[in-house]
Amino acid sequence: SPPGVKPSVDVSGCRRFTSADGVLLLVGKSAVDNDRLSFRVARGNDWWFHVQGLAGSHVVARTPRGVELGQETLLDAATLAIWHSKFRTAGRASVTYALRKQVSKPRNAPPGLVMVAQPRRLDVVVERERLERLLQGEAGRDEG
């Protein structure tokens, strides 16, 4: 298993990437997968990412307890959030991120809809080299 991931964690329904800092990045494939990733797979101190204002995948950076989110991981996760969203063709977007414990699900909300307490925002322009490195390193591409 990649560092920071217990083999018992079922990450089916997620695309798996590794940041330049070696952190596992998980990306939901559908609204239902986003819910599962955000509320069953992610731990409280993992970092959660989503593009602002449009539909897209939830991205979780599996950060070990007490480990700061590195700049490369921050940019890699934000890049994946943009790539797996309706902003893909724009090449730039604002990405909301927060600790997973600051993300909650409103009662009776549809799959994929969340509320974020204390959101942070990062304006990102997708760098082609970064995106290519991430996509080339995607794990389990042939698993569906």
Strand content: 25-35%
| Straight-line N-to-C gap | 19 Å
**Mean of pLDDT:** 89
**Radius of gyration in whole Å, from Cα?**
14 Å
Poorly predicted regions are none
SSE succession: EEHEEHEEEEH
Main pleated sheet: 6 strands, antiparallel
Strand order of the largest sheet: 1-2-4-3-5-8
Helix content: 10-25%
Would you spell out the secondary-structure blueprint of this structure?
Layout: E1 14-18, E2 24-28, H1 31-41, E3 47-51, E4 59-61, H2 71-83, E5 92-99, E6 103-104, E7 115-116, E8 120-125, H3 128-136
Antiparallel strand pairs: 1-2, 2-4, 3-4, 3-5, 5-8, 6-7
Care to give the gist of this entry?
With 144 residues, this protein is α+β, with helices and mostly antiparallel strands. It is 23% helix and 25% strand. It contains 3 helices and 8 strands.
Written account of the structure:
The protein has 144 residues and is an alpha+beta fold. It contains three helices and eight strands; from the N terminus they run ββαββαββββα. The protein has helices spanning 31-41, 71-83, 128-136; strands at 14-18, 24-28, 47-51, 59-61, 92-99, 103-104, 115-116, 120-125. A six-stranded antiparallel β-sheet has the order 1-2-4-3-5-8. Strand 1 (14-18) and strand 2 (24-28) form a beta hairpin. The model has no long low-confidence stretch (mean pLDDT 89).
From the structure above, extract its key features.
144 residues, alpha+beta, six-stranded antiparallel beta sheet, two-stranded antiparallel sheet, 3 helices, 23% helix, globular
